[in-house]
């Protein structure tokens, strides 16, 4: 009996190895990043998602429509609302991203996405794959870039989380070898590690950052994390002006909340799961996951999202209109930067900081003790439209 189970597991493992080796060949064929600035028209997909997703996506679209009014009217940009990436539709079709939704997403150059619900094994829903994870994989969005800023504590971090490999890529392909033995897999490739680590160093170089910190658990997870670290050490040699150090994930988590050390960190790069955990922790220091935006970048596509989940409880309790849209609007800033609208990105970033961290004329509390998201986005727009935006920002940040 056990022998059969072992044979089945071996066969399953062999399939995984073939798929992974084929994926490596595809990465090798990649020809570099598309150039959005030379595109006659950029299509921005808007995906609501589940729970509070459609609410905060609407608000973000409202903000972007105002900021991009000119290129929209000139036909240089178009919005395309893509429906159907909801847990109900996904469960009905039994697909993580239903085929017709995926086909529509493929027509977009960049995607702005609200959070989508991910069923857990054991939930009373079919155990379909996370739409995030599928989308990252379908479009090969290997770089998950998550900035966290707390100016008063001198915190200015950018996390580069590997997004297509690690603990996640085979997350739904583990094996229950017997009733008692469960095995999951973690995969890291030289090519996959190289592209994310290089992205981190390139970012550091372009943005005049002096240090890149590599986060692994290479003392215990020796093979995969060991490879990640080794690749990082090799790439670091190509950037002699940038210091490179490495930390284990446990002590890194401690240092991020150590007031005497944390502002020393600048750019951090790490395998998938560590990045998932560390970025939630970091976002909490900034004011909660509701404040953090996230870019998922590949060479041909990019997707921008909030880092939090769909908060179905807020919808059930009638509180969706109090959900904080800042996370997705911040993702919108990253999208504007990515497609080359730098001035617009900068203005929106300043307005977000003025409204959320300095002036705070309206504050969101997630319930009726605070502003609604409609009020809040109007506040952001009013702040952007104020002709003295930059001067006011300087006043606040001086
Ligand atoms: C994130 C989220 C996702 C992840 C979930 C929803 C699958 O937590 O983007 O950090 O783990 O990557
Ligand atoms: Mg997460």
What does this structure look like?
The protein has a domain at 29-141 and 298-398: Isopropylmalate Dehydrogenase, CATH 3.40.718. It is built from 15 helices and 12 strands. The protein has helices at 2-29, 53-67, 69-73, 87-93, 99-106, 131-138, 190-206, 224-236, 249-256, 272-286, 312-316, 326-338, 342-358, 373-385, 389-397; strands spanning 42-47, 77-82, 110-113, 143-150, 155-162, 175-176, 182-183, 211-216, 243-248, 267-270, 293-297, 302-306. The strands form 2 sheets. Strands 2-1-3-12-11-4-5-10-8-9 form a 10-stranded mixed β-sheet, with helices on both faces. Strands 6-7 form a two-stranded antiparallel ribbon.
- Helical percent range? 40-55%
| CATH architecture classification of the domain at 29-141 and 298-398 | 3-Layer(aba) Sandwich
Number of strands: 12
Q: Overall mean pLDDT score?
A: 94
Shape: globular
Looking at this protein, list some descriptive labels.
ten-stranded mixed sheet; 45% helix; alpha/beta; binds magnesium ion; globular; 15 helices; 398 residues; Isopropylmalate Dehydrogenase; 16% strand; binds 3-isopropylmalic acid
